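Minutes, project huddle
Topic: does the predicted pose make sense with N-(5'-phosphopyridoxyl)-D-alanine bound?
PN asked that the exact inputs be recorded in the minutes so nobody has to dig through chat later. Recorded below.
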Amino acid sequence: MTPSPRIVYVNGTYLPLEEAKIPVMDRGFLFGDGIYEVSAVLHGRTIDNLPHLERLDRSLGEIAIKNPHSINEWIAIQDELIARNGLAEGLIYIEVTRGVYERDFTCPPDIAPTVVMFTQAKPFRDNPLAKTGAAIITLPDLRWKRRDIKSTALLAQVLAKQAAKAAGVAETWMVEDGHVTEGASSTAFIVTRAGEIVTRELSTSILPGVTRRTLMKIAANLQMKVVERAFTVDEAMNAAEIFFTSASTIAMPVVTIDGKTVGGGTPGPVVAKLREMYFEEVENS
Ligand code: PDD
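Predicted holo structure (tokens), as shared on screen:
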């Protein structure tokens, strides 16, 4: 059987990945001057997608790139790309850069943004790691000060993820002023021994996670107490449960931090319940 080519989207055209080209002078390539979003796809359709497209619009606005598409246009392109790739479960990626211009830190405000989109097949519904729990490490947060913007300039996260990989663990939690900011590509949560779900309050220090928001709503509906405040690594080490959330992991229990067993060494009931309810909601919506 000949494998069908992977189809990507570049500026209005669907084409095989091998044929897709981005100009050398694209500012996304030269400066990391762009915004991205990642939505999950389950059973061939996007889940929890609207808040991702709203966050895309907000991030673009914050760095003065004109959003080239309406929400409905984005959804139509996403659906078409999912269909063309026959994607059942995985991720859909959107990147919008400021566009192409001779290399210069500044450029005219009206150059046309570059849009690139692709899908990635990646089963996450029945991720075996969610049953055993993940290991993480902690490292200083080296990022810039506008982490609420989903910028494609991800060097600090790349280094944090490479360190995680070298340590043989799934994620790095980044620490600043003695407190956890967030994961390299996820939101950080603990459940205290008193049963409170704790995650950092929204600010320019962290990305406003879409999965964070949805799981907080689910927790509130289950009468679970959610507190938004910063916490220390020590608190996490002594918490009843530890987990992280993102579009690609949903809710992932953590069982070791920096090589030390935490949360009793097994995934706890709160994260298991939130994960279960999340899939129940998205699968029945
Ligand atoms: N990352 N914090 C950071 C720094 C992230 O990069 C992400 C997501 C999150 C979780 O956000 P959400 O729940 O909206 O996915 C938090 C994506 C998945 C990525 O970079 O691939």
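Observations noted during the meeting:
- Residues 7-121 form a domain with the D-amino Acid Aminotransferase; Chain A, domain 1 fold (CATH 3.30.470.10).
- The chain has two domains: 7-121, 129-284.
No decisions taken; revisit at the next huddle.
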